[in-house]
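sry for the spam today, last one i promise. struct tokens for design, 104 residues
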């Protein structure tokens, strides 16, 4: 590999460990970056999900939702928005419900 040869050619480099892995995604798999982009778009286009209240991460096709909302229907709407996206293997909904009359 070119990167391996280039690293080995640097002075004072005594060893190079090559841990590059090439993995071909099956037709029903998608890259986490693509899933994250689509999930953010889905949340932003769902009117019952408060804007800028939900953050998400994607790891191997599993979406983790975090944040705080005032109502259960908002929490459910966020999960329902991302669950059917292509490539999603699961959703971990960690969104907390904190009614606005309790916030202060």
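last one done:
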């Amino acid at each position: 590999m070119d990167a391996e040869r280039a690293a080995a050619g640097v002075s004072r480099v005594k060893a190079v460990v090559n841990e590059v892995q090439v993995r071909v995604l099956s037709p029903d798999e998608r890259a986490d970056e693509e899933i994250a982009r689509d999930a953010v778009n889905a949340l932003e286009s769902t009117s019952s999900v408060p804007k800028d209240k939900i953050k998400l991460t994607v790891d191997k096709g599993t979406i983790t939702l975090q944040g705080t909302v005032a109502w259960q229907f908002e929490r459910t709407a966020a999960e329902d928005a991302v669950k059917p996206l292509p490539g999603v293997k699961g959703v971990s909904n960690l969104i907390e419900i904190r009614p606005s009359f309790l916030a202060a």
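The domain at 26-97 is CATH 3.30.300.130 (GMP Synthetase; Chain A, domain 3). ok im logging off now
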